[in-house]
Amino acid sequence: MTTSLSCGRCSATLLRPLGPARTEGPSRVVAVSGGIGSGKSTVTAAFASLGAIVADADAIAREIMEPGHSTLTEVAARFGADLIRPDGTLDRAGLARRVFAGENAEERVAALNAITHPAIERRAWQILSAAPAGSLAVYDVPLLVEGAGAERFDAVVIVDAPIEARIARLEGRGVSPEDARARIRAQASSRQRRAIAHVWIGILRPLRDSLAGDRVTRVLGIMNGTTNYILDQMDTTGASFADALAEAQKLGYAEADPTADVEGHDAASKAAIVASLAFHSDFTIDDVHTEGITSITADDVAAADADGYVIKLLAICEREGENGANIRVNPTLIPRQHPLAGVHGAFNAVFVEAENAGELMFYGPGAGGAPTASAVLGDFVSLARRLVLGGPGVPETSHAQLHATSLDNVISRYSVGVLVEDRLGVLANITRILAEHGISVDSLRQSTPKEGAAQIRMVTHSAKDSDLRRAIAVIDALDTVREVNSVIRVESEKH
User: Fold this and answer.
1) pLDDT of 18 above 70
2) Number of folded domains that form the chain
3) Does 464 participate in catalysis according to the annotation?
4) Structural domain harbouring 73
5) pLDDT higher than threshold 70 for residue 448
6) What per-residue confidence (pLDDT) applies to 368?
7) Fewest 10 Å CB contacts: which of 324, 364, 389, 466?
8) Is pLDDT above 60 for 375?
């Protein structure tokens, strides 16, 4: 099963798992490739903005075609000395027409590649090999399929776009449509590139349109950028809730009165909207079970990290049976390797599971003045288009008429924190009560007793919410239990 990440009009799909990181030199050497005009330079620029060391094959190709370079001399000897202008520079447009247009273009392309590829490769690997230890090295290489050698890279990222979009981009660079089509025909096909790709990046239509004919089964979302920033700060810096909130307010992510964000009301409103769209039914905020993040402590975050999890405020919308849907917003432990775990700062992300499309993730800024203004403006533009054009696109419907269900039958794993008296048999008593309610313990840790008390943290196997709540009520009433101080749901494929 593939996993997809979406942002704006682009989607990135993981087609094959990546191998382990390198132990010497750069941790990974990644190839970014794609047909001419596909947008690979934009992807490479994104890598560079994150600190990657980049070797750009196009830039190197220009370098080796500078006056006086031996490669330029060899190209002129093969394709015509008249391609060299009086000032010693290459007539690039003339070379393109001579190589790519007309009959037997494949032979001429192969001949040009035989001259230029070795020189480009030597220079590129000089740059890549010199990348600092532990860094990410990226090779922007248009002709990876044609030149072979994809196995040398730890990951191959292929960027693709519709042919007409590529032609339009090339026209903007002064390339005629005829020359653009000739160049595209001379390169590898999308099918050939997909065969070597680890990651495939392509153009994506809006979620509503893309999944209009699919059956969405589940949606998980980080739908409030403010709370994600707070929890991310607590996770990455060890900050307390209060300190992380203060920083969010300072940066303009949180309002002076942050209640709507930190108590989960904002995310709940969005969850109701998303569930209505995903399941073609009418839901309101009253249908959403809502918990905020004000009870999350630095100890909770540290304990989650020790178990390989990160805490996120998730909106979860999932079908329950044929006629129902459960919608809830609550703090949730998710595995570090889950795509949502990598959503940092004030960003939002929605992870969608659909029967045909598989897994998709939509990602973007979720807090702050500019992102909010952009989203509102986008809504106004969309509305204006519908008014002027008579409502194009896929309309919202409520034909499914699913009803909102309670938490009682929701199946989940749970992380439970209990502060107990340091006495013999306390732990055995707690696990016995859980077992009596049909709940088994997957993992358990106990802190070193201090001042006559010890902190127990357990992660359960899957259990019904109603059974867990009844068990917690019994445990909390024990005279050996000082406090049940944490009950957090766990999102995981492990049952």
Assistant:
1) yes
2) 3
3) no
4) 23-204
5) yes
6) 46
7) 389
8) no
For 21, which DSSP code? P
Q: Identify whether residues 156 and 255 lie together within a single domain.
A: no
351-389 per-residue burial string, b: 16 or more CB within 10 A, e: under 16: bbbbeebebbbbbbebbbeebeeeeeeeeeeeeeeeeee
CB atoms inside a 10 Å sphere around CB 48: 15
The rounded mean pLDDT for the chain is: 83
According to the model, what pLDDT value does residue 22 have? 87
- In the set 270, 450, 464, 494, the catalytic residue is 270
Q: Identify the pLDDT of residue 363.
A: 64
Closest by alpha carbon to 330, among 227, 258, 253, 251? 227
Beta strand spans in 275-346 (E): 289-290, 309-320, 324-335
- Evaluate whether 262 touches 230 at the Cβ level (below 8 Å): yes
Rounded to 5°, angle at Cα 119 from 113 and 123: 135
Task: Residue 174: give its domain's CATH number.
Answer: 3.40.50.300
3-state secondary structure at position 256: coil
Backbone angles phi, psi at 202, to 5 degrees: -140, 175
φ, ψ for residue 135, nearest 5 deg: -85, 175
CA–CA distance from 430 to each of 248, 472, 474, 484 (Å)? Answer: 39, 9, 9, 11
Name the band, by pLDDT with cuts 50, 70 and 90, for residue 376: very low
- Residues facing 316 on adjacent strands: 220, 328
Q: What number is the average pLDDT over the span 114-137? A: 91
Closest CA to 280 of 373, 367, 371, 217: 217
For 225-258, what is each residue's pLDDT tens digit?
A: 899 999 999 999 999 999 999 999 998 888 889 9
Q: What is the pLDDT of residue 400?
A: 63
Higher local confidence (pLDDT), 159 or 436? 436
* Cβ(440)–Cβ(461) below 8 Å: yes
In a domain, 232, yes or no: yes
* Alpha carbon distance 114, 81 (integer Å): 18
Residue 277, both tokens: 């769209």
